[in-house]
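Fold it.
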Amino acid sequence: QVQVMESGGGSVQAGGSLRLSCAASGFKYRQRCVGWFRQVPGKGREEVATIDGRGVTRYADSLKGRFTISIDSAKTLTYLQMNSLIPEDTAMYYCAARDQCLFGLSRWRDPGFFRAWGQGTQVTVSS
């Protein structure tokens, strides 16, 4: 049974940092593909970053340098470190997972590419 669960959201002032965590389990292979997306009311889910089991990453161009995606050594948790947060980063953040990233297909930005989703964790950045 595939399960994805996020944690670590909250409220922070502009300029602050937050770290989100994602636990994805139930996949056939230990090395899975994990992506972070975010969504604000009235808009579609926007890609944030994706990482594969080898640690290869992809980022939304607008977030490079402020956000960092990583996996722990046991490959059980995926993290999204968010620094220099701005009010525009306020959103529901979702973790998603699938077996392989297949970066060559360039579909990591597509929410429909991912097999399983968490329920989301709210991030609120105040000015």
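The longest strand covers residues 18-25.
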